[in-house]
Amino acid sequence: MNTNVTGGLTDCGSAQMPGVSGGMLNISYPFNIVTGSNSGTGAGGNPASGSIAWSDGSVSVVSGNWVTSPVGQNAISTLGVQSGPGAGQQIVLGTRQIANAGSVGGGSGGAGSVVVIDALFH
Q1: How far apart are CA 119 and CA 116, in angstroms?
Q2: Alpha-carbon distances, residue 100 vs 46, 52, 83, 106 (angstroms)
Q3: Model-level pTM?
């Protein structure tokens, strides 16, 4: 079972990516069946992979660690750009957990909410 993070990036702009004004983030990381959690707090985070579909039609493939935080707290995740715009760089995403996912016990689940505060190439 995987946890998926999907959301829009707005107000993007960079001299390295002219014509890009936003994108769609799609990240996936494994649910930890040992702990019964999808939380990856701390420096290690969860091994994650996914993509960013930019507004100009290009796609960056990313992988790295996705860090979650308790509701109301910020987290920082660093993903390496494997291919596409920004290849060879890292993208650092600042997020804030604003709602928990529903219970996953017994096979039920729910959607949580995470807001992306900023996304920076590094």
Answers
A1: 7
A2: 17, 23, 32, 17
A3: 0.79
- The H-assigned helical ranges of 14-121 are none
Look up residue 122 and give its two tokens: 């590094």
Sheet of 23-30, strand order: 2-9, 23-30, 46-54, 59-66, 74-83, 90-99, 113-121
CB neighbours of 107 closer than 8 A, spacing ≥ 6? none
Average pLDDT, the chain: 78
Residue in this structure with the two tokens 């998926």, named with its chain if needed: 4
pLDDT band for 84, please (50, 70, 90 cuts): very high
